[in-house]
Amino acid sequence: MYFHIGDVNASQHSALQGMIFAPNNYSSRLLRRLVQINIINGEYKVAEKYLRILETTLFHKKWAKRLLEVLYDESRIAQISWVKEKRPLVPSSEDLRRPNEHIKALNLLLEENPKNQKALHYKLCYHLLSKDVEEFAYTFFEYRDILLRGRIPRVYQEALVVYYINNPDLEIWSEIPVEPATISRFADYNKQFERYEGEGLKLKAKFEETYWFYYHYADAEED
């Protein structure tokens, strides 16, 4: 996950930790990840060390040899798809944090690059899974201009409806990009919720895949 959102240093920590607990303290999959991380960071000597190991394996030797051929040619390295994608996302500064301080890590990535949509969506979904609709909404409105460049996911729309219901005095309804179909479905959900007096089993068949059902009935585990 850390590699996916561009936090390559945290990804390296996780990969090395994974190597420690792997059988015989070795994993070719994690070695490949360490190669990628060190190439992205420009640590070519370290990357070469891992590539020399992978060069002797059955399933990774071709991949290792292809990278070794271009390893010190910056112009060719810079054209590799995952290098082009990840280098702009790497923070220029670091901050001390514990491994489970996910929000702190995501905030750092977004401060460095507000257009890092992968980090943004991970942060939004983290708040949704935690049922922290307030923080979700604050984050959504902070990055609203970026998010509105694409279609707003249905689960985001459903969470924004919850936020509005919890804050009816705020004059924000016109700023919430919720489709009429979502409003209509929420009205149906609310009607059924009252009709069955909150009995979840009666709502499950029709609304199980909505955020409203998750918000009311799922048990969000603490980190």
Secondary-structure map:
Layout: H1 2-5, H2 8-21, H3 28-40, H4 44-54, H5 61-70, H6 74-77, H7 81-86, H8 102-112, H9 117-129, H10 133-142, H11 144-147, H12 154-166, H13 180-195, H14 200-207, H15 211-217
Briefly characterize the structure.
The chain is mainly alpha-helical. It contains 15 helices and no strands.
How is this structure best described in words?
The protein is mainly alpha-helical and 223 residues long. Helices cover 65% and strands 0% of the residues. It has helices at residues 2-5, 8-21, 28-40, 44-54, 61-70, 74-77, 81-86, 102-112, 117-129, 133-142, 144-147, 154-166, 180-195, 200-207, 211-217. The model has no long low-confidence stretch (mean pLDDT 89).
Essential attributes:
single chain; mainly alpha; 223 residues; elongated
Q: Which range does the strand content fall in?
A: under 5%
Largest sheet: none
Number of helices: 15
Radius of gyration from CA coordinates: 23 Å
The strand count comes to 0
- Oligomer, anyone? single chain
How far apart the termini lie comes to 16 Å
Overall geometry comes to: elongated
* Class of secondary structure makeup: mainly alpha
